Amino acid sequence: MSRVEQSTTAGSERPAVWHEMADRVVAGGRLSRQQALAVLRSDDAQLLDVLSAAYRVRRHFFGNRVHLNLLINAKSGLCGEDCGYCSQGRRSTAPVARYNLVDPHQVIEGAKLAAQRRARTYCIVISGRAPQPRDIEWLTELVPQIKRDYRLRVCASVGLLDRPQADRLKACGVDRVNHNLNTSARFYPRICTTHTYEDRVRTLEAVRAAGLEICSGGIVGMGEEDSDVVDLALELGRFQVEALPVNFLIPIPGTPLEEQGRLDPRYCLRVLAMFRLTNPRSELRIAAGRELHLGPLQPLGLYAANSLFVGDYLTTKGQPPEEDYRMIQALGFEAVVEGAPEPGPIAPPGRRQPGPRPQPE
């Protein structure tokens, strides 16, 4: 019986096995699939040891820094894809706003707010299967201004991409493209039928070939098995993604996955620890669903992760940014903005990202 197998049967008697994993990762090694599964299946008595091992890796590569990100939903709804988790897809009856590209002024105001909130990266999201030519043109006009005026890193989330489209994003100054694999290849047909897992992989390949950074992660809690979560983590490790958002499913009424239950917050912490140990150099972001599923255990998540969204998500609300600042400060961590000037005072309590007004369908 291996050390990992022993650790899963011996309760808290073998905490050293997790730190042996951390030593291996820090030295440049990789976790096996069996070891990653053992992290997810460790018992509650081992949770602090697992988190401690993940924190050792996080601290080695990122110190106690926390990277903040702000997102704008620049084009909402109007999507013909049938992703089961999404309130903007064609199978959803959720009452979400539906509008085409917002006024450029709103995007610039969002960038200003991102700077005020000490965000390092400004994420511009455009709904739909793939970007239309006018979507690309719109980005090529706005991104240079955002980078000139606010010195933010820009991440674009625009759906499926081919190499020429990725090249255009690179040329206009986009730093990073977000395109989540979401789950394993095995489970993907259960959540979407209008495109394939392989389509998403090809998008990541095009993004990398264009010289862009990759932001890609997944959604936990869609009915998948532990093995699917591990397979996703290992595939993202193969791509060596620069940023890895971990979303915990928000079961939005009106979506096909609305009946999925709440996740155990301790399991969520093990998920974050596993992603850190399998992707040690990635900016690991606790994304949508952290408020719902981690609840009062949110601060512990930052012992594995080193990145957060401040503000709202695509179609759901996040907690007020001031709560995030207090959480980071209470942990003794530091929110950093690499390469940006002092942006002035943080937005006052309760202030939200300026949301675009819904447009007629």
Characterization of the model:
The protein has 361 residues and is an alpha/beta fold. It is built from 13 helices and ten strands. It has helices at 3-9, 16-26, 33-40, 47-62, 104-116, 133-150, 163-172, 197-209, 226-239, 265-278, 290-293, 298-301, 321-330; strands at residues 65-75, 121-126, 153-157, 176-178, 213-215, 218-220, 243-248, 283-286, 307-309, 334-336. Strands 1, 2, 3, 4, 5, 6, 7, 8, 9 and 10 form a ten-stranded parallel β-sheet that branches. Strand 6, helix 9 and strand 7 (243-248) form a beta-alpha-beta unit. The model is unreliable at 5-13 and 339-361 (pLDDT under 50).
How many β-strand runs?
10
Average pLDDT rating:
88
* CATH fold-level name of the largest domain: TIM Barrel
So how many helices?
13
Query: So what's the CATH class of the largest domain?
Result: Alpha Beta
Distance between the termini: 61 Å
Q: Let me know the CATH homologous superfamily of the largest domain.
A: Aldolase class I
Major sheet: 10 strands, parallel
Number of domains: 2
- Low-confidence blocks of residues: 5-13, 339-361
> What sequence of helices (H) and strands (E) makes up the elements?
HHHHEHEHEHEHEEHEHEHHEHE
Strand content: 5-15%
Shape: globular
Question: Which keywords apply here?
Answer:
361 residues; alpha/beta; TIM Barrel; 2 domains; ten-stranded parallel beta sheet; 13% strand; disordered C terminus
How does the SSE layout of this entry go?
Blueprint lengths: L2 H7 L6 H11 L6 H8 L6 H16 L2 E11 L28 H13 L4 E6 L6 H18 L2 E5 L5 H10 L3 E3 L18 H13 L3 E3 L2 E3 L5 H14 L3 E6 L16 H14 L4 E4 L3 H4 L4 H4 L5 E3 L11 H10 L3 E3 L25
Parallel strand pairs: 1-2, 1-9, 1-10, 2-3, 3-4, 4-5, 6-7, 7-8, 8-9
Helix pairs in contact: 2-4, 3-9, 3-10, 4-10, 5-6, 6-7, 7-8, 9-10
